[in-house]
Amino acid sequence: MAENLDFIRKLPDSLLLEIISLLSYKEATRTSILSKRWRHILPTSATIVLNERNGTIPTHFFAEFKRTRLTKTNQESHIDMLSLTLTKPQDFVNDITNCIAFSKEGNAKVILLDFSSPTWGENDVVDDYVGFEAKFDLPFCVYGLKSLETLKLFSCNFDASMLKSFVSLKHLSLGWIELSASSVKDLVENCVSLESLSMKRCWNIGFIEIKGQGLRLESLNIDKCNIVRGWINIEAPNIRLFKYSGEFCTFEFNSTQRIEEVVLDFGIQSELGEVGPLLFETFREFYAAKILTVCSFVLQAIVSREEPLGLKPRLAVKHLILKTALHENELYGVRFFLNSCPLLETLTIDINPAKRIFEEYEPPFSEPWTKALPLYKCLVKSLKVVEVKGFKGSQNQVSLLIYFITYGRVLKKLDINVSKEVVLGESPEIYIQKAQILQTLNKASPSLQISIF
To answer: Which PROSITE patterns match (predicted)?
Structure first.
């Protein structure tokens, strides 16, 4: 009778492997009681996953791994992915090394090692990074894994000069480690197939210089790294996506004709400074980008008395995303980008009142931002969609939307997503009422639809 209930034995090995690959290792081993064939097929599962943050106990995981994997040999064993997430790798050095060695034997394509602590805040300001030192070194046995395409090393040291042995490596993600400028340079030069590089909360990087013959890099993400000299030099003719979050840096870019998307977030910058001219030159480097995301700092800093209220030559941006509080200090910056993006088709205004507003800000002009507001080319020719997130109906929010409604000649959609917050006695119901008033205005575009969510 029990044999009749074991329907799993009727399934082909290929299907069982596909099912098991969708399960975490803990779930897969737990369900092995369902069938003898399940227990037999488990050692060939293509995915090994330990995530301490999801409740898996490393001691139990490694004991089960040793019992089901290392004690059984299977010539057909193949590993697609190894993913280990735990906070005290120093307590399991041999176990982790065994997992990595096993994955190498299985010609793994993906290895993800995250030994960072969940207590390390994403936005914490750290001066010396004492206590953040990596407690684990990438084992020598993994170098030379020719099948490896994706590698993630968080709080895990490595030898940059040895990365050249990863001839198929396309995606590299580094985080919470100390990096030298020479290490960054070496890894880019040595990983000849590299297409995407991400660096998160790495520290003591003197500067970042990324260039080389035949560089294939298409995506670069630098997230809150400690760049001592504040200088980034990129020469990557194939780069499509550039994302930067951190303190303000001087950027030097060459060969950016193919760039498609740029995200700049200087939200952790503590001082406004006089960086307007430097920002001016930075955006000139990104003239070809079609999607651009800028932060509140950029909106406050980019306009100065010395610079015109717009870039020349103009940007090729078609989708502009503003991370803003729509504070008075930011509104000349909003005008700057409307003027600089004559091909703009979609404008997203992501309102967050928690954005840092600098008290030392001085308006570049004496008249208010709304006075003699020009009719920018994008409003006449191209702007079709405006999306607003976090609408509360403040004076600046309403004034800006009135401008789009009354002058946006080709505008087709205005989507207003009201805030869920209750502030100073005003609730989402009141925000909706304010938004509904906008629906009654005369529209420059007869096809404009105003939706409130």
So the answer is: FBOX (PS50181)
Residue after which a domain boundary falls, among 207, 238, 259:
259
Domain co-membership, 227 together with 308: no
Residue 21 lies in a domain: no
Distance separating alpha carbons of residues 237 and 214, to the nearest angstrom: 9
Domain-embedded: residue 73: no
Q: Kindly provide the residue ranges of all beta strands, DSSP E only, lying in 246-345, ordered along the sequence.
A: 250-254, 261-265, 291-294, 319-324
Supply the pLDDT for residue 44: 47
- The strand pair at 47-51 and 81-85 is best described as parallel
Provide the pLDDT for residue 343: 98
Task: Verify that 94 and 231 share a domain, yes or no.
Answer: yes
SS3 of residue 111 by DSSP: strand
Checking phi first, is residue 55 left (phi over 0); if not, alpha (psi -120 to 50) or beta? Answer: left
The domain total for the chain is 2
At residue 141, does pLDDT exceed 70? Answer: yes
- Quote the crossing angle between the two packed helices 428-438 and 395-407, to the nearest 10°: 30
Kindly state whether residues 376 and 236 are assigned to the same domain: no
Distance CA 77, CA 47 (A): 11
Which residues make beta-bridge pairs with 319? 291, 346
Give the structural domain span for 132: 78-259
Tokens of 262: 């740029």
Interval 330-336 mean pLDDT: 93
| Phi, then psi, of 183 in degrees rounded to 5 | -65, -40
The label of the residue with tokens 């004709």 reads 257
Lowest mean pLDDT segment, chosen from 9-18, 107-116, 298-307: 9-18
Neighbours of 430 (CB within 10 A): 15
User: How confident is the model at residue 26, as a pLDDT?
Assistant: 54
Contact 65, 99 (CB under 8 A): yes
